Each structure stands twice: as C-alpha cells, then as structure tokens.
DNA sequence: TGAATGACAACCC
DNA sequence: CGGGTTGCCATTC
C-alpha cells in the first residue's frame, strides 16, 4: 500500500452520484499523472475490499471498460446517460473543488 | 530481488 | 475517424 493507492481510493470516494471520473484524472490527482493503469489495478484489486463507487470510474474516452451491465445501470440510475457504453464527459465528468 | 501484469492514455499510421 | 503500438508506474507473483 502506497500513499498513491490510498489517495486514489480517497479520490474515488469523493466522486458524487451522477458524476464520473477518468482513470487519468484520478491518477493525476493522486500524484501520478501517468498512473492511470495503477488506478485500474487498484479498482480491480481493492474495489471488493472497499466500498468504492468504482462504477463511476471510466476510461478517458468516456466509456465503460468492463462493459458490465451492473455498472451501466448503476450510472444510469444515478442520472448519467450511458449510450452504448459511452458517457458524455463534458456533461458528467466530475471536476473536484480545489478549494475542497 | 527480479520479472510480469494491468478496469489506461497518448501517439502514429 | 479507426485500428494498432508504445509508454508508464505501482502492485503482484
């Protein structure tokens, strides 16, 4: 467990319903702008052990990676329009408040 | 300790 | 615009 991992988890937990974040964005906020893959690995490995809203984490193209029906339905339920596994980032990507 | 992996991202053709 | 390849970096074996 590295500070990066803990930070990534913390960031994911801050994603509000109806919003999504990309791996690269999360990785960047976590301190590793190139660590998008680690974010993916963290989700893959820790999501079950943590109560992370991993379904709000998508690829930079605004698409669901797993193409999991549960994830898609969860997002739609929160208000995110998921069209053919794609999401309108400009409309649903979450921009964290630097003021926090 | 060293090598391989991976829910990605960016670049090139 | 679409498809394929390379780079990145922490985690895992």
TrEMBL record:
The domain of life is Bacteria
Keyword Cytoplasm (UniProt): no
Q: Which GO terms describe its molecular function?
A: catalytic activity
The Gene Ontology biological process terms listed for this entry are: DNA repair
Report the CDD domains cross-referenced here. Answer: ATase (cd06445)
Q: Name one Pfam family in it.
A: DNA_binding_1
Q: What is this protein called?
A: Methylated-DNA-[protein]-cysteine S-methyltransferase DNA binding domain-containing protein
Keywords of the record, alphabetical order, are: DNA damage
Residue span(s) of domain Methylated-DNA-[protein]-cysteine S-methyltransferase DNA binding: 3-80
Question: Which PANTHER family does this one have?
Answer: 6-O-METHYLGUANINE DNA METHYLTRANSFERASE (PTHR42942), ALKYLTRANSFERASE-LIKE PROTEIN 1 (PTHR42942:SF1)
Taxonomically, what lineage is the organism? Bacteria, Bacillati, Bacillota, Bacilli, Bacillales
